[in-house]
Amino acid sequence: MTILNEQTAPIADVTADERAQRLADAGTTWNERIARDSANARLTYRVSGRGVGSVGTEIRAGKHRFLVDEPTALAGDDAAASPVEYALGALISCHVVVFRLYAQALGLTIDDIEISAEGDLDVRKLFGIDESGRAGFHDVRVKVDITGPNTAEEYDRLRTVVQEHCPVLDLFANPVPTSGSLA
Fold first, then answer.
1. Which listed site, 63, 69, 74, 127, has its alpha carbon 20 to 30 Å from 29?
2. CA angle 147, 152, 155 (to 5 degrees)
């Protein structure tokens, strides 16, 4: 098992007013940057990884490092979440960001938000048993639980807006041109 020496920093709690101000400031700043030059809207994310343990990966994303592994039933050391669990985690965390962003923009209040996701995956293609199916999820379900003073209809409209604007949901819902090379 590989243990990363660096510990992750905890995320500090913020008040609703602090969150609202940070969201408003970010929106203003990005609108101004993009208005000056539309090329400022295009971002490139770079992440790298190296194999560790049986089938684990140490990921480096900027100053952050984290471990990805598989359960022992899939040849891993079970030292961390699996790639598909991180994918669901990315979907959930992106939802949280976009829910908060658009709630702020639409004048809605989110007192608390909890999201769960589950995905169904058939491992036959992964192990070369049956090439006819998908290698990835064939069904993903996301459940969002929001508490706050707004109506159920307002939160449902917010959900629709989030589904239209969530980058990671877009990755799940639409084919993305992907290329690869062997160095």
1. 63
2. 70
